[in-house]
């Protein structure tokens, strides 16, 4: 399961409305093998809003009224992920809390997992 905080969901709904996207748009969360984590294979989070329906390769979740799509290949690395939206003196943006991440970089967008999970 992937969950959104209420604040993250409100921000996504605002962006959907502001960009005149259909209310049925979904948030796609992906993991790609790249990033700046220096231990193990580094992975990075990628998110985007999609108007397209889910494919047969997608896991579909709903959290706080927002549909979330995760490809099967990414799910093993982010199962249980929580996505928040934060504002601070450093800026504003989405923050990831991933119970599978064993190490993360300073920017918070790159992580590594146990070697056993990677296989």
Detailed description of the structure:
The protein is α+β, with helices and mostly antiparallel strands. It is built from three helices and nine strands; from the N terminus they run βαββββαββββα. The chain has a six-stranded mixed beta sheet. The protein has a three-stranded mixed beta sheet with strand order 1-6-7. 23% of the residues are buried. The mean pLDDT is 85.
State the main characteristics.
alpha+beta, globular, 119 residues, 20% helix, 6-stranded mixed sheet, 3-stranded mixed sheet, 9 strands, Hypothetical Protein Aq_1857, Chain: A
Total DSSP helices: 3
How many E-type strands?
9
- What is the H-and-E element order? EHEEEEHEEEEH
Q: What is the mean pLDDT?
A: 85
CATH superfamily: HesB-like domain
Low-confidence stretches: none
CATH level-1 class: Mainly Beta
* Largest pleated sheet: 6 strands, mixed
Tally of distinct domains:
1
Into which percent range does the helicity of residues fall? Answer: 10-25%
Return Rg in Å: 14 Å
Largest beta sheet: what is the strand line-up? 4-5-2-3-9-8
Content-based structural category: alpha+beta
Strand content: 35-45%
- According to CATH, the fold-level topology is Hypothetical Protein Aq_1857, Chain: A
Q: Could you say which overall geometry the principal axes of the C-alpha atoms support?
A: globular
């Amino acid at each position: 399961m992937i969950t959104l905080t209420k604040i993250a969901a409100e921000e996504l709904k605002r962006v959907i409305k502001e960009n005149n996207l259909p209310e049925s748009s979904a948030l796609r969360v992906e993991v790609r093998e790249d990033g700046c984590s220096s231990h193990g294979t580094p992975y990075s989070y990628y998110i985007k809003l999609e108007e397209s329906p889910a494919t047969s390769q997608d896991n579909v979740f709903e959290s706080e009224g927002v549909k979330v799509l995760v490809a099967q290949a990414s799910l093993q690395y982010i199962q249980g992920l929580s996505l928040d939206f934060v504002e601070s003196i450093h800026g504003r943006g989405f923050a990831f809390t991933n119970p599978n991440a064993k190490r993360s970089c300073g920017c918070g967008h790159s992580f590594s997992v146990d070697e056993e999970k990677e296989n």
